[in-house]
Fold this sequence. Notes:
alpha+beta
Amino acid sequence: xNWARTGIEKFKKDLLSGHLSEQLDNFxxxxxxxxxxxxxxxxxxxxxxxxxxxFPGLLRLAWQMYRNSIHKYATRGGFASxxxxxxxxxxxxxxxxxxxxxxxGNFDVAIISQSKSSVDGFGNLWIPAxxxxxxxxxxxGGDQDDNISLCPLENSQALLFRNPxxxxxxxxxxxxxxxxxxxxxxxxxxxxxQKPKEADTKKEISEPVNNSLIEKYLSSIKTKDELISYTxxxxxxxxxxxxxxxxxxxxxxxxxxIRSAIGITNPEIAxxxxxLYPWNLERVIDSVVKDGISCGEDLFAVENLINxxxxxxxxxxxxxxxxxxxxxxxxxxxxxxxxxDQLLEAVVFLVNAADKEILxxxxxxxxxxxxxIIDKCDIPIIEIAQSNFxxxxxxxxxxxxxxxxxxxxxxxDSTKNLExxxxxxxxxxxxxNIQQNLLVSMSEYNNEExxxxxxxxxxxxxxxxxxxxxxxxxxxSDGNLRGTGEDTIDMLNNVGLSEKRINHVEEKRNESSGFxxxxxxxxxxxxxxxxxxxxxVQVVGRELKAGDRIFNLGDEIKVADGVYSIREVTPAYSRKxxxxxxxxSVYIALLSL
Length: 593
């Protein structure tokens, strides 16, 4: 529990201090092609020297990276996981330490015999040669490609173990650190006996022979190692055996967890189960990833242990019920308040509390918003506002924003009464569809127009109390569809809130491009439908002629006299109140002919 708490607090500290920028900013090793292909919006923002802590949407993206790891502290895929990082823990690979030799390759025996294990900055765990045999006997494996978990302890010692492992498969040894900084160490509490050396139960035992002639013959035969040629046929045979064993590691690992959980509250029962039903995890692993060796008797032992637990009503933590096959779960006796269940409940509480602290909960529009840290971002609203005066794409932006928010509200309301798993799935797919449709609509505009649209969104959203609901600004690219997050980053570059570190060939628009987004008004009610079927219009002075109708140009509009084609007609909204529709005005996107 303390490890989980420490891990979460460290994530929160890194998030809010901006330390994540240092971790992700490998821009100097990035070329323009890699920049363009990068799909992770948060990383792209950091590459542009954007302070992600000032924008709710970016801070949310940053937290999601952390929370994906934090949620696994408790569950994964709806099942108990307990993937809690060891405080100060390291990962390394086993290596026999044969580094102390002269130029001729001669080893200094005195130095080797006195040396101790060490970890270097490249992830090598150097084990003295005279200790290697004993260490691999306990931990299993000896091919030196074995991933070792290292838990720093007091008094310059370390706990070493592999994953997966069986009870007792650990080593506590003196350790030194070469180029590795260890600021946190752990204290041992209690003891677990090391796993004793096991006899090879797979070795064939010969019956005694009382015939001297046969004995003489057998002793004359030299035992030969069976060599298997590396051919495609033999490779296929081995792969076929391995494929049949693919679930074995999971079956045995589940039994290991069940037996270990029993040992927490009933150590004598767990010890008895270990003696009654022994299995060799190393052999099971080899059956899956190495040579497909038979591990039938190991699986038979696992099966018997499960039967014993069920038949004798041995209590099991509720969170481990999923480790039994579905057909047996109803027969399992669940403990009322097992320490493992309490740990899971406590870690889930920590995870949810951290989530709520960062993201808050509820909706501003519904009045049930509980503010989180993202509600308190120091958003640069003044800089955005100063650059948003006379934005020609304002009304189009408001139309898109209103449609987006309406679709989101309908989705959330229509799924609120569903079971949590179904609700989360439908909301996820629904949001993806809404955002993809928006990106399709945005693809009709060039980069400068898109930048103006997101600038209007940013000002409209960030100036009010709904600033936390800014997802429309930070949509990632989807295949060939450019995301709005890219436009927001470019817009903030132009405003001076970030640093464009790659000079792209940008699509530019000037007066000669022939595109204009103009507002027209009339004394009578004016709607989009009045311009249905009209393909071209004529501007004369401060008037616009559309067929037999004449409209007035908005006071802020500057456009030369001439004939233009209509690209799009959209509603007009009040500049003072972006939600108020102007009944006497519309916006018309024009292209000069």
